[in-house]
Amino acid sequence: MKCTISQDITAGVDLIRAGELVAFATETVYGLGANALDSEAVARIFEVKQRPHFDPLIVHISNVNQLDQLTLGLSKQAEKLAEQFWPGPLTLVVPKTEVVPDLVTSGLGSVAIRIPAHPIARQLLEATKLPIAAPSANKFGCLSPTLAQHVEEQLGNEIKLILDGGPCSVGVESTVIQCIDEIPVLLRPGGISLEEIEACIGRVRIAKIEDHAEVKSPESPGMLPKHYAPRARLVIADKLDQLPAKGVNGLLSLYPLEETFLKGSQFSAQEILSPAGDLRVAAAKLFTALRNLDSAGVENIVALRMPEKGLGRTINNRLDRAAES
Ligand code: TXA
Ligand code: MG
């Protein structure tokens, strides 16, 4: 199959309406989209991604008016969050209607919904007038794509069109919050920080991977321990004195490290996420930096843990999961 990279929204609309897949830019990561109301089209997403069917998809919409068709209603907290953070990198898990195919939600009684902010995603959603189910446009378990070229490398032989919107400005996936019970649950940290969420709706419960003994039916399957992984083995160092001395290693850090700290350690490649220490900038660079280290051919990537605040928490979550073996 020949894959086109373009900004041809009309071509995207035709493909989606015909039940085919289209990869498209969002502000978080590139998505692999299909008509969310067409089970056969959605089945293709799982096939192309090699994604297990127990891992449900996010349904993207352009407008809150589409909520009635898909959900049984939003809780007070969900409404507040939607008002403050949509369009943007926030996904709300809410009770679903019969209209949403079971394949989309892996048979759960809830559906994950997001209104993205990126103009390419918005134009596609507005022009199709359809809800679009879209996971990140990568093979299951691999690094998420933040450039059209990343999608082409992994899925170029299996899809016809990638709608190019340049580099993703947020660069990590959306924050997923389940708003079903009285206390909302943070299922996946993402582009909106926990601090911003709690400033909006007060305390939330934070779901822990360890809470899920049954890996086959986790509360949010995106919490599967091993995920977002580069090819190289990833090791997390909490402190500089934990840096290994031997091997062909790459280093991932927030700030540049002084020569004196590096003494004794050998790094054949180094990625610095934000010399100014800006965790938003760092998040936007994370997946590209991990890809660069893979391309440099290192065996191990040593990642220095980020400060556990703001988007540092999201970066640490992705690093922890990439480090699972
Ligand atoms: O930023 C993003 O969220 C990107 C862009 C394309 O929108 N999408 C994305 O999709 O990251 P994906 O499939 O890689 O992650 C979806 C997450 C998974 O952790 C999944 O388990 C969770 O959302 N999810 C979806 N439906 C759910 C549900 N009904 N209950 C709990 N978790 C759900
Ligand atoms: Mg993903």
Helix run count: 11
The geometry reads as globular
Spatial extent as radius of gyration = 19 Å
Q: Give the ligands present.
A: threonylcarbamoyladenylate, magnesium ion
Beta percentage is 15-25%
Q: How would you state the average pLDDT, rounded?
A: 91
Task: Provide an overview of this structure.
The chain is α/β, with parallel strands linked by helices and 325 residues long. The protein is built from eleven helices and 15 strands. It has helices at residues 9-17, 39-49, 67-70, 76-85, 102-105, 119-128, 148-155, 194-201, 259-262, 279-295, 311-323, and strands spanning 4-6, 22-24, 31-35, 58-60, 90-95, 110-114, 132-133, 161-163, 175-178, 185-188, 205-206, 233-237, 249-253, 267-272, 300-304. The strands form two sheets. Strands 1-8-2-3-7-4-6-5-9-10-11 form an eleven-stranded mixed β-sheet, sandwiched between helices. A four-stranded parallel β-sheet has the order 12-15-13-14, covered by helices on one side. Helix 1 packs across helix 6 (119-128) and helix 10 (279-295) packs parallel to helix 11. The longest helix has 17 residues, at 279-295. The protein is globular and about 60 Å long. Bound molecules: threonylcarbamoyladenylate and magnesium ion (MG). Threonylcarbamoyladenylate binds at residues 26, 28-29, 31, 55-58, 89, 91, 93, 105, 108, 110-112, 114, 134-136, 173-174, 176, 187-188, 220-222.
